[in-house]
From TrEMBL, chain A:
It comes from Thauera terpenica 58Eu. Heme c 2 binds at residues 174, 177-178, 226. This is SoxAX cytochrome complex subunit A. Residues 1-22 form the signal peptide. Residues 47-143 form the Cytochrome c domain. Belongs to the SoxA family. The lineage of its organism: Bacteria, Pseudomonadati, Pseudomonadota, Betaproteobacteria, Rhodocyclales. It is an enzyme of class 2 (transferase). Its EC number is 2.8.5.2.
UniProtKB/TrEMBL annotation, chain B:
It comes from the Bacteria. Gene3D superfamilies: Immunoglobulins (2.60.40.10). This is Sulphur oxidation protein SoxZ domain-containing protein. Residues 7-100 form the Sulphur oxidation protein SoxZ domain.
């Protein structure tokens, strides 16, 4: 809490000292370029690849038979087409919830353990490493989620509704912070997610390694933090609303290139 | 046990470019945890890189280097298939060595 006050005080001081920083003066592209060379997300990817192949859990099995939508064990390109409707579960699943399902069915690791767990800890941390591994194999692919299934349409509509739904102590919606062009907070651009370019910029650059805290964050983690920034109730890990928001953003961003894993402030 | 590094080494026109990503907490010893207790210092102190067993870089690291450090450097020489090995040691005596073939 104290840290937050300090940050506010600092940004106020900066605002007075240097009014109206032009957006391009910060040169986000140069910043990103410098960060992208040697993105430490690679360390998580290595760990994830190892985890994918390691026999673990009560069933002592690997994840090599996990079907991420393109067939058992197929990793390349899979993340670019998620979230999707899966016939075997008859549910729309994002990468995290699908991996969680594979960990439960193949390895016997209970999903509850991850849902009730904490970010960056235990099985949820392992799940994040697996996410790093899977998305790396869709780096540069075009976002291509299939919205034709009725359950995908339903999730898209729910996501759109959630995006504009004002709630919490400040009466904020996602759209309160993400529906204008050219906005930034500190050294982070705030994409306008109501437009395809903005949706693609947001969806297609997470999961990401954050240099400010040396942590690798999945999209579930990103969304959880935005719920917090919205000052509203904490979302349940991999719950329908988080997947719906993902379908909304990915669907709007369809066709754009994904830069995975990203690297952020 | 220390986690593996990711090392990339590529030779071009008689110069080898090496890029190394290390997994390390790099605790400064000056931060406190949520209960106010000091988090003990834990950081890499020395690093060396060898090309076919010949030392090409030796560096001293300290607490000002970030978590999960990234190091890039070039040296004269090196050819495809040669060995490039990197070793670090930290203040707790933990160490890690990894090796790649130059591409």
């Amino acid at each position: 809490m104290r840290k937050q006050f300090k940050a506010v005080a600092l940004s106020l001081a900066l605002a007075f000292a240097a009014p109206a920083f032009a957006q391009d003066e910060l040169n986000f592209d140069a910043y990103r370029e410098m960060l992208a060379d040697g993105n430490p997300a690679e360390l998580y990817e290595m760990e994830g690849e190892e985890l994918w192949r390691t026999a673990r859990g009560p069933k002592n099995a690997t994840l090599e038979q996990c079907d991420l939508g393109l067939g058992a064990g197929v990793v390349p390109g899979a993340a670019a087409q998620l979230p999707r409707h899966f016939a075997d579960t008859d549910r729309v699943q994002d990468l995290e919830s699908r991996l969680m399902y594979c960990m439960e069915t193949l390895q016997g690791i209970p999903s509850e353990q991850i849902i009730k767990g904490k970010f960056l800890k235990d099985e949820r941390a392992k799940l994040a490493a697996l996410v790093a591994y899977v998305v790396t194999h869709s780096n540069g692919e075009k976002i291509a989620i299939d919205l034709s299934h009725p359950k995908m349409k339903e999730m898209y509509a729910l996501g759109e509704k959630a995006f504009y739904y004002r709630t919490g102590a400040m009466d904020f919606a996602c759209s309160s912070c993400h529906s204008q062009d050219g906005k930034r907070i500190r050294a982070t651009q705030l994409p306008n997610i109501t437009k395809p370019e903005g949706a693609a910029a947001g969806w297609g650059s997470w999961p990401a390694y954050r240099v400010s805290n040396s942590q690798f964050w999945t999209m579930q983690h990103r969304l959880w933090d935005c719920f917090r920034q919205q000052r509203t109730a904490e979302p349940i890990f991999a719950s329908d609303v988080t997947i719906a928001l993902s379908v909304f953003m990915a669907g709007k961003g369809n066709g754009a290139e994904a830069v995975w894993p990203g690297v952020k402030r | 046990m220390a986690s593996p590094m990711r090392i990339r080494a590529a030779a071009k026109d008689g110069v080898t470019e090496v890029r190394v990503l290390m997994a390390h907490v790099m605790e400064t010893g000056q931060r406190k945890d949520s209960s106010g207790a000091l988090i003990p210092a834990h950081f890499i102190t020395e690093l060396s890189a060898r090309h076919n067993d010949k030392l090409v870089l030796s560096a001293q690291f300290g607490p000002s280097v970030s978590t999960n450090p990234y190091l890039a450097f070039k040296f004269n020489g090196g050819a495809k298939g040669d060995k490039l090995a990197v070793t670090w040691v930290d203040n707790k005596g933990d160490t890690r060595s990894d090796e790649v073939q130059i591409a």
